[in-house]
Design brief:
Mean pLDDT: 86
CATH topology of one domain: Rossmann fold
Radius of gyration: 19 Å
Oligomer: single chain
Shape: globular
Structural class: alpha/beta
């Protein structure tokens, strides 16, 4: 499913002693059918606000302007019913922190089955089969079906979140910093897994991050944001090799100097004599 964002604005309404301000200012971007596109920028640049605007989950004190079209359906100004029908069925989101994204009182099986139950009228046996299939696709053992989020590692929780996002075979997946809370080795495993599953579905991917070394493995084209605006766009590898904007240069330098993956964004080994670059914890951790 394509995603066409044109002149997107997000404004914070004025409140007592707090003036109104614009946090997303005229952002335009496009994700084509079956395309993997990145949105990269420093913390506070407005990346997550763009993602939440696309799926229609911004809090009520934020006002959205411009246009967001998902497969031709306009989301800005659409009613809650339209947005809710698209979410989960055609568009899914993987959030930064699976610990807070997953309901602590729902089991793994219940979390993964929720989009199926909400959007489709399926027999319980069919739902169960699809849940197990989704778990296998993200390399989670069936014995974890009845487990709760607090009983899982960070990597396992993110795999549950990915399984829940992909169980309905959506046409667009938005991944909002999905590896930030994970250790270095698990980060790479989760990125590789997500990319593989998206490609198998033939779906589109909007991958949001502040880390160019992650983006290089996940996308072919990207947009760079700073202070609520898109300041650069182009092929991911092209920006990595010759960044034009100052913020892109800073992000590329950080990826080259402080990569958590043991290799630079262009594939060069960066661990050196001192071990894993960037002070990564070094432990594999539980996946």
């Amino acid at each position: 499913m394509s995603c066409e964002v044109t002149g997107l604005t997000v404004d914070v309404a004025a409140r007592r002693h707090v003036p109104a301000r614009r946090i997303v200012d005229g952002v335009s971007l496009r994700v084509g059918d079956g395309e993997r596109v990145g949105l990269v920028g420093p913390s506070g640049s407005g990346k997550s606000m763009v993602a939440r605007s696309v799926v229609g989950i911004l809090p009520p004190h934020l006002a959205v302007g411009g246009s967001v079209k998902l497969g031709g359906t306009e989301m800005v100004g659409a009613g809650d019913e339209v947005a809710a029908d698209l979410r989960g069925r055609y568009v899914s989101m993987v959030f930064q922190n699976p610990g807070s994204a997953l309901n602590p009182v729902r089991t793994v099986g219940q979390a993964i089955s929720l989009p199926l139950v909400m959007h489709y009228d399926l027999e319980p046996g069919d739902v169960h089969d699809r849940v197990l299939r989704a778990m296998r696709s993200v390399e989670l053992p069936e014995r974890l079906t009845g487990a709760y989020p607090h009983q899982l590692s960070g990597g396992q929780r993110q795999r549950v979140a990915i399984a829940a996002a992909l169980v309905t075979s959506p046409r667009l997946i938005i991944a909002d910093e999905p590896t930030t809370a994970l250790d270095a080795i698990v980060q790479r495993e989760i990125v590789d897994l997500l990319v593989s599953l998206v490609d198998d579905l033939g779906a589109s991917l909007l991958f949001i991050t502040h880390d160019f070394s992650v983006l290089a493995h996940a996308t072919t084209r990207c947009y760079v944001m700073d202070a609520g605006r898109v300041v650069e766009e182009g092929a991911t590898q092209g920006i990595l090799r010759r960044p034009r904007s100052s913020v892109a240069r800073l992000l590329v330098r950080a990826a080259n100097e402080l990569s958590l993956h043991g290799e630079g964004p262009d594939g060069a080994d960066m661990t050196g004599a001192g071990g894993t670059a960037g002070g990564a914890t070094g432990g594999r951790g539980e996946r």
